[in-house]
Amino acid sequence: MFGGRAFRTWPRVLAGACGVSILFFVVMVMAEQALGDRVRITRAGLLISAAAFVGYIAVSWIIRLDETHPD
Question: Where do the domains of the chain lie?
Fold first, then answer.
């Protein structure tokens, strides 16, 4: 589907993971504001953000392993 070029170096992987994590965090904060009465940083938002970070790292690790193994 796509190449693993973005996952070749760990600084790129960490930058991507931070970007995805921040994106999920912003969406959770905006959802809290839309459903509640004010902007709040909640534990759920932090957990979703951490899960997005760990998930991105895991997927990039799998992609890197797949590229190192010959077919």
Answer: 5-68
